[in-house]
Structure prediction request, 375 residues.
Amino acid sequence: MQIYKVGGAVRDRLLGLPVSDVDWLVVGATVEQMQALGYRPVGADFPVFIHPKTGEEYALARTERKSGRGYGGFTFHASPDVTLEEDLIRRDLTINAMAEDLQGNLYDPYNGQSDLEQRILRHLSPAFAEDPLRVLRVARFAARYAALGFTVAAQTLELMRQITESGELQALTAERSWKEIERALMEDQPQVFIEVLLACGALKELLPELDSLFATPGERGQTTLAVLAHAAAHDQPLHVRWACLTHDLGAAIKAVNQRFKAPRECQELATLVGEWQHHYQQAAALDASTLLDILQKFDIYRRPQRLEDFMAVCEMIAHGHSLHDCSQSAYLRGAAAAAKAVEVKDLVQQGLTGQALGEAVKAQRLSALEAYTQR
Prediction:
């Protein structure tokens, strides 16, 4: 029985990057041997075990063959006879197909270290085209390592194009697609993820609404990428980045949210940005009634962070359009403070309840906003 550290942990160590998660591979062992050593089985499709002390995952070496459509259309075979090389070749990229034994010796049967040095994302074998999820994974790796100068090999991009044209991307579930999109959006250069999908034709299949921005006159598509890049540069959270990506999709935002089953926070902010972003640039010219409608819609009294997130997206949009005046944010914060300054308890003490209380609160908030706009 031989144990190897494999995949991302080896890759990132060679790149001089922090290593967070470690994947372990066991060659030459049976399920019974692993259990006898105290490892706890957790794998449903193939043998994966939890180390009795460290809690890390150890997988038995395995091979795979295509047996159906999509990401899950594979049959796995785990056996003590499966070699390290046979296990590694089923992986996606050469840089992810290296291993290191417990003594620190590197095993690199597919020249992953050379591709690391050349900054190339290269597929391992023609079997790469059997898994449509790899289109998104490669685009995500391109986004992660763009700052280091990595690019996708021309032959790999061609295989990604072939996968797209085969229709296999349609077999991906919303959950799997979203998991890759979410991770890609949180990379340092998420716009590269979109650029790679665009280059291989996958964007048209996955996000046709966004793809169409690149086909229309003007620079709408490139501006969206600039907005997303600014969001990453300002270390914005996931829901802000998602709203930045979808901000120019108009009425299609709802359909996109639903297609990927985006988290509720992402859906809500994207929808609000789509509906109200045009009011942001004109904030100082809005009348008190419209300001009140906006503040009510954002529920600033119970969820003040939503307005802050909305303004963050609008600031990223402004930067993407090379507009650097974001004084509207300060103006909207002032409006929110004026509306929130109305003391509801004072009206309750006057004996107001129910609808009468609601109308009185609204009237006083409107009055406060009228005073604010007339300063």
